Amino acid sequence: MSISEELKLRINGAINAPKVRLIDENNTQVGIVSIDEALSRAAEVGLDLVEVSPTSDPPVCRIMDYGKWLYQQKRKQRDASKKQHRHAGELKEIRFQPSTDKHDLDIKLRHAREFLQKGYKVQLTLVFKGRQMLHTDLGYTAIEQAVQALADVGQVDRPASLSGRRMVVVLAPR
Question: Rg of the Cα trace of the chain?
Fold first, then answer.
């Protein structure tokens, strides 16, 4: 369905009201005129007469380039659909260990920040190896620090949970 069908705008000869409230091409209100006078004014400047508010009494009509306006509306609609979250359902994973060096962790968090800014969800996975399982409290601390570092661009979607040797938290973009 096209935009003109969605809006149900009538143009030029399709307008059937005897009198209309006219807005000229400079967006100034002319007043209430007959439909013949409104059509002749639109023809003088080489533009279309478009009924923009058919429910008011008398209906409001505007002199404009209907083809250009329709093109702009389609373009706005296309741009709006592009800007919707393209990555909303996609998940990126960042893995690290409780013993990961601070510099390495900063680099991983920088990647997570970029993913969140692009609209992806980010799963932070902390992997315990060997006897590190004895110190899960260090894991919760590391996860909490990572979440705090990303708080300005992401929010917790799924809180930290321990499953086997992995601790997982999922962040969603703000």
Answer: 30
